[in-house]
């Protein structure tokens, strides 16, 4: 994995070493270790069920066998008042907030008590039928006399969007041999269970089992319009007037060995305070509310007419109880409790029959099979410690995006119905990422997403009128019904970037989709025109400069919303008006003059307004700052202060006053990079490189989508030499590994879409915004394979990238044309007339010149620093002295300190048979009569094991490094820069765990390396230590370079190494060690050599295995290094050149 150029401003997105979930076939399962230390809310969020309309979030079972689920419905909301400091009709007086409809509990009571779990149930989510499973084993009664299993299944239908269901199968009922004996033996005082007869201990035990279905409604938020049982409930929001209908069906079937019985339920109605008087209330006669003029929902008002208006009672519970008695003679083989529910918004639905759970699951399987047959995404790291860990994240994200796509025409909440309140709002900025994703994976769903935006157009026109625009439409950033739902967006600068982003999605959709219905073309063009026509009204011409300005309008970055001249707004508005003109002319040619005239008349637009688009677009000038050579976020960005001092607390918006943020030079969403990524045709590659270098250091990454933007631009700019794989890994794993601890707030669907874009537009280097499909995949260090599919013009293209080839395959459709690399046109098809089918083509990924001496270089970290070995010695010396002092005091004997000669001979030249075991330190201790076990890497510093000592040494070294801050040798730094600029892939390795600390003090060196291996990774991957060359082989593999084309810079190669192992590489350079030169008396021994026959066998006749490099004459350029390899440089000490003859 490459180093990421992490700035002091950046938020931490570190992925834990141990995964929370594992991929088992097509099932996501919770790791056995994770259950002990991971919050249940993480599992609840990942395993929830949704179809985009319903969201059912299950609460993980912890101690009892009860199953609880919260139900959310897309578009169901409450109104909350806005604290308006300015009394203006232009500002909204209320906002929408997502609502939790109800809580559903499926409980099992044994003699009135909940069944107790003996262990945490295994949980899994099946990606093939979208079903959640929880397996409760060995559930016990309170007295331990009854045990059974409970298998829970939950599914949210993707065929009938208002439907979800769950069932629990209780089985394996067993009685203890003697509950009476159990209690008698446990206590000197005789205790009788409720199910035992105290006068007759030999009587057969019996238990009363209650299977209870409970629907709980919060009366502070909802009024009950109708509801005399759990089967039929009608609710109305107390603030928005939204009406929600809940129709359920609950059954309990008991199977015996020779018969089956359905239990007749008992109904009950309870309030939270236990007032059973409510059971006599009749809710069936309640009436619906009358219409109101609420701006959030004109259909229903806030006045509720119902039979129950007591808000002091906080909740109301509708219960259905199924009761059976169990004895040894009436022991059932299975009890199945089934719950099915339909949730309908807006009124009372017509009655429909419920399908069975099995029928729903079969429908799910067919729907998902079709999806997985045409959708492919995979990204694998080399030798992952947890197999398929990244694949799990990608499959999960794709699965979730597919599930919510069933209801895109009604809007996509930012949390995908995985949580309530703000997670149920639609973040229309995230629609930018969703629009690109669905357009390239499932165009019909992209059209549904746009149709959802079109449904908000009437309210968007009202929004435009509110800010005194004569015509056009203004779309908010966060909404449910079309009005702005984030208060700071209503009182600070206008955030109108969503308009341009909608225009971008529409233009991209027309470019990527071949067949579009005429009616769809017309309403899409209407949406495009209405969103574009606001720009000429919002800006003004600067006559002295002849340019058009859009000031006081902010982009998506919350940290730069108070200055004029926003780059992203000007660029996106310019391209929006250009796109609308192009699109209008295209549709004019296709649909004819009459259709276009009718459309313009419908929206009260004339052709002069269209022509004004052209003049306004041409008048917007995007200027580069001449001094910095980059585009500025806004006009005054370069005048802001740098953030100095302590590292900021994240997110900044929750820890600092807005003025403190606005006055500093930093970004959250890097708008400049986002604009350059979306409109690549407007910029050259050098612009991407320069602006990336400038803004990645200023990015706080408080918004996770910023990871995708920076990663995609890095891949686009630097290709296989990009460093963004760690960012991409964190982005993909954000939810499944709870990277930023936001599980309670719901999933991040914007992250899911943007991570896919980072792969396809970044690694695949798809050029967004083009009407021709351009692909030029790269293969960053550390990856073993990348796969993805793209839908384009009615066909589906599969792309596979490995270290040798890029393979394209047509997997659906008749024909697809695209451009690979620098203009190589490729046409894949199923056959035309006399032409045979051509479905697949493989293109060599890299065509390397064989004229160069090498393609990669691996540096042992210690070669980069002059004094690093001295620091290692000081750290070990202090660590061992602490141990020796204890032994001297306890055993009253003299113990000699560690000497430099001893450190040199036994530690520097330590030889290990396998991975590092600190054999050198072990030998030092054995010489003093101290024998310590190896231990584990988790041993604390005070634990007397070799790993405990090593951990203490790491801490000691960190303290020394903080004082000395060693710098990379100037000659080495110059060589590294020249190698990198010459296209040589670089890696740095060490057996020490202090590599990251060293690189922290040398940030200018970090970006030069594509991969690294430190002591932690060497241990985790069982990489053999010195004198083996496995660590260098692994580094060459990481940077995708054949070892035979790779040079290695190492130290102390004169002992222990085998010539046959060294011969795998192009050449080794033995860099002089200052520690050995100054502090010890030992002389360098002869280097290992190959026999003549062995040298001839490997084709290296006359070429040395090892060259010794003096610190005083290090090469600083690749040319000088090659001259040394040719033997043309005086810096090579011929006395230390290894020959091949013995």
From TrEMBL:
InterPro entries: 6-hairpin_glycosidase_sf, 6hp_glycosidase-like_sf, Glyco_hydro_65_C, Glyco_hydro_65_M, HAD-like_sf, HAD_sf, PGP-like_dom2. It holds the Pfam family Glyco_hydro_65C. Residues 771-822 form the Glycoside hydrolase family 65 C-terminal domain. GO terms for biological process: carbohydrate metabolic process. Residues 437-756 form the Glycoside hydrolase family 65 central catalytic domain. One of its GO terms (molecular function) is hydrolase activity, hydrolyzing O-glycosyl compounds. PANTHER family: GLYCOSYL HYDROLASE, GLYCOSYL HYDROLASE-RELATED. This is Glycosyl hydrolase. It comes from Trypanosoma cruzi. The lineage of its organism: Eukaryota, Discoba, Euglenozoa, Kinetoplastea, Metakinetoplastina.
């Amino acid at each position: 994995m490459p180093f990421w150029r992490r700035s002091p401003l950046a938020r931490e997105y570190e992925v834990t070493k141990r995964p929370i979930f594992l991929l088992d076939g097509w099932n996501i399962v919770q790791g056995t270790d994770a259950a002990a230390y991971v919050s249940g809310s993480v599992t609840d969020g990942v395993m929830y069920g949704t179809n985009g309309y319903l969201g059912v979030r299950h609460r993980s079972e912890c101690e009892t066998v009860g199953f609880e689920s919260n139900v959310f419905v897309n578009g169901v909301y409450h109104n909350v008042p806005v604290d308006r400091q300015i009394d203006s009709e232009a500002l909204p007086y209320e906002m929408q907030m997502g609502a939790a409809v109800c809580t559903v509990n499926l409980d099992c009571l044994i003699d009135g008590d909940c069944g107790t779990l003996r262990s945490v149930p295994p949980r899994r989510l099946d990606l093939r039928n979208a079903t959640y499973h929880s397996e409760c084993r060995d559930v016990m009664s309170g007295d331990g006399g009854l045990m059974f299993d409970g298998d829970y299944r939950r599914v949210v239908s993707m065929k009938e969007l208002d439907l979800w269901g769950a069932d629990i199968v209780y089985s394996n009922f067993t009685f203890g041999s003697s509950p009476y004996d159990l209690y008698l033996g446990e206590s000197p005082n005789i205790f009788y269970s409720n199910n035992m007869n105290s006068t007759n201990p030999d009587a057969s035990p019996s238990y009363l089992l209650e299977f209870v279905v409970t629907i709980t409604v919060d009366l502070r938020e909802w009024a009950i319009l109708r509801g005399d049982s759990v089967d039929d409930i009608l609710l109305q929001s107390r603030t928005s007037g939204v009406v929600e209908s809940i129709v359920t069906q609950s059954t309990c079937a008991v199977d015996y060995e020779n018969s089956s019985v359905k239990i007749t339920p008992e109904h009950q109605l309870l309030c939270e305070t236990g007032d059973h008087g409510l059971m006599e209330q009749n809710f069936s006669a309640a009436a619906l509310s009358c219409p109101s003029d609420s701006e959030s929902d004109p259909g229903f008002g806030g006045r509720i007419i119902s039979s129950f208006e007591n808000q002091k009672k906080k909740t109301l519970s509708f219960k259905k109880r199924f009761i059976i008695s169990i004895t040894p003679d009436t022991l059932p083989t299975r009890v199945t409790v089934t719950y099915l529910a339909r949730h309908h918004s807006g009124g009372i639905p017509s009655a429909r029959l419920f399908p069975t759970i099995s029928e729903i699951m079969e429908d799910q399987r067919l729907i998902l099979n079709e999806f997985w047959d045409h959708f492919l995404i995979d990204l694998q790291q080399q030798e992952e410690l947890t197999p398929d860990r990244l694949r799990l994240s990608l499959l999960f994200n794709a699965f979730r995006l597919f599930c919510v796509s069933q209801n895109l025409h009604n809007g996509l909440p930012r949390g995908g119905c995985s949580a309530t309140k703000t997670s149920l709002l639609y973040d229309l900025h995230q629609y930018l990422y969703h629009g690109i994703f669905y357009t390239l994976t499932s165009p019909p769903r992209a059209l549904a997403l746009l149709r959802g935006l079109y449904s908000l157009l009437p309210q968007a026109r009202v929004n435009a009128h509110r800010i005194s625009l004569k015509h056009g439409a203004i779309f908010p950033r966060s909404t449910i019904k079309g009005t702005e739902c984030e208060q700071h967006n209503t009182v600070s600068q206008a955030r109108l970037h969503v308009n341009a982003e909608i225009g971008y999605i529409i233009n991209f959709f027309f470019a990527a989709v071949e067949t579009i219905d005429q009616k769809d073309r017309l309403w899409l063009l209407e949406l495009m025109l209405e969103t574009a026509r606001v720009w000429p009204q919002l800006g003004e011409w600067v006559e002295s400069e002849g340019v058009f300005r859009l000031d006081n309008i902010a982009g998506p970055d919350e940290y730069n919303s108070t200055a004029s001249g926003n780059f992203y707004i000007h660029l996106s508005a310019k391209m929006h008006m250009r796109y609308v003109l192009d699109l209008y002319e295209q549709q004019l040619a296709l649909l004819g003059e009459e259709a276009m005239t009718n459309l313009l008349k419908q929206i009260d637009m004339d052709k002069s307004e269209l022509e004004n688009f052209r003049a306004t677009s041409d008048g917007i000038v995007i200027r580069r700052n001449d001094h910095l050579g980059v585009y500025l976020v806004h006009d005054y960005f370069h005048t802001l202060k740098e953030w100095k001092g302590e590292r900021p607390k994240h997110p900044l918006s929750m820890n600092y006053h807005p003025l403190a943020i606005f006055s500093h030079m930093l970004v959250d969403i890097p708008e400049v990079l986002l604009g350059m990524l979306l409109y690549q045709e407007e910029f050259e590659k050098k612009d991407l490189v320069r602006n990336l270098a400038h803004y990645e250091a200023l990015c706080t990454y408080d918004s996770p989508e910023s990871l995708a933007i920076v990663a995609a631009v890095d891949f686009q700019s630097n290709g296989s030499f990009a460093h963004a794989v760690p960012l991409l890994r964190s982005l993909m794993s954000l939810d499944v590994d709870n990277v930023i601890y936001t599980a309670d707030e719901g999933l991040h669907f914007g992250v899911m879409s943007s991570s896919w874009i980072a792969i396809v537009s970044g690694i695949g280097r798809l050029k967004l915004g083009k009407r021709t499909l351009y692909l030029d995949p790269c293969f960053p260090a550390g990856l073993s394979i990348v796969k993805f599919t793209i839908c384009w013009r009615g066909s589906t293209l599969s792309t596979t990238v490995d270290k040798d080839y890029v393979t394209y395959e047509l997997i659906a459709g008749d024909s697809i044309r695209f451009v690979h690399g620098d203009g190589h046109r490729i046409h894949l098809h199923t056959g035309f007339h006399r032409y045979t089918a051509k479905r697949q083509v493989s293109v060599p990924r890299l065509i390397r010149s064989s004229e160069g001496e090498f393609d990669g270089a691996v540096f042992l970290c210690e070669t980069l620093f002059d004094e690093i070995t001295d620091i290692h010695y000081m750290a070990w010396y202090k660590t061992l002295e602490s141990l020796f002092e204890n032994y001297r005091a306890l055993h009253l004997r003299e113990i000699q300190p560690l000497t430099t000669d001893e450190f040199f001979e036994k530690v520097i030249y330590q030889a290990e048979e396998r991975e590092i075991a600190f054999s050198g330190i072990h030998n030092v201790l054995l010489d003093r009569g101290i024998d310590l076990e190896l231990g584990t890497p988790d041993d604390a510093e005070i634990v007397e094991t070799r790993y405990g000592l090593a951990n203490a040494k790491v801490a000691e070294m960190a303290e020394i490094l903080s004082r000395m801050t060693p710098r990379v040798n100037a000659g080495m730094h110059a060589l590294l820069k020249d190698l990198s600029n010459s296209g040589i892939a670089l890696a740095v390795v060490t057996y020490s765990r202090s590599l990251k600390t060293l690189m922290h003090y040398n940030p200018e060196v970090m970006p030069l390396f594509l991969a690294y291996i430190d002591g932690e990774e060497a241990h985790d991957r069982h990489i053999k230590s010195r004198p083996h060359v496995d660590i260098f082989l692994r580094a060459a593999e990481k940077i995708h370079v054949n070892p035979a084309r790779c040079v290695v810079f190492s130290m102390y190669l004169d002992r222990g190494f085998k010539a046959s192992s060294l011969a795998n590489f192009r050449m080794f350079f033995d860099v002089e060690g200052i520690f050995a030169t100054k502090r010890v008396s030992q002389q360098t021994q002869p280097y290992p050599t190959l026999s003549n026959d062995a040298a001839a066998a490997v084709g290296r006749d006359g070429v040395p295995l090892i060259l010794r490099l003096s610190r005083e004459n290090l090469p600083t350029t690749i040319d000088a290094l090659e001259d040394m390899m040719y033997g043309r440089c005086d810096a090579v000490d011929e006395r230390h050149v290894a020959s091949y003859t013995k």
